[in-house]
Write a structure and sequence with these properties.
It is a single chain. The chain has ten helices and eight strands. The chain has an eight-stranded mixed beta sheet, with helices on both faces. The longest helix is centred in the C-terminal third of the chain and has 16 residues. About 40% of the residues lie in helices and about 20% in strands. It is α/β, with parallel strands linked by helices.
Amino acid sequence: MGYVIAIAGKGGTGKTTIAALIVRLLKEKKLGSILAVDADPNSNLPEALGLEAKQTVGTILDQICAHPELVPGGMSKDRFIDYQVQTAVQEGDGFDLLTMGKPEGPGCYCYVNNVLRGVIGKLIKDYDYIVIDNEAGLEHFSRRTTRYADALVVISDSSSVGIKTAKRLRDLVKELKIQTRKNILIINRCAKNIEKDFFKNIDLEYIGNIPEDEGIKQISLDGDSLFKLDNNAVGIATLDKIGEKIWLRN
């Protein structure tokens, strides 16, 4: 059974960057097969991983909704969608990628949640690690598209708004009875260490902070892959030090 790492947090905290760096570290450590899932409609994870999303689940659903005659006779719509989604998985260098995207056609969006739940349920059997970059905010969890995670990793900045959002995310996960084994908090783009007691009422394990990284900032501005980031860059070096609590199976 694959090990699921779900990345969450409010917009602008570097959630997608951390997701991409985790994929990179898992690959470099040769811990097993990896599936990266971009579950954010803004679809920035492919770029961060040096890929271009050629086909998304959203475009597949649009096409089928607009042209139901594409569904072969004798095959159910759900089964045909499932087959098409399987073909949308892209091969990267040492990892695979599935991009959800966002359908535009009327009546299609209701399929996205069911498709994502079904696909993840099947693909976790085929990969050692599944890294899911969730939609910013609370919407993704409130729709219950993520029902299980070995590690829930909440990314926040050091602002009071960011910390409050992190707490709401954790509270919502418990309220919806989403099963998580580890519940982790990372403070991103923060130069100073923060005392763990500051987070004692959040019910998330604070494992550390990642300082601002000029290399990451430049790569993001250029639209390049985070695989180009130097191994000694502060962002990836720091995540490497604290990341075992995220991906170790214990």
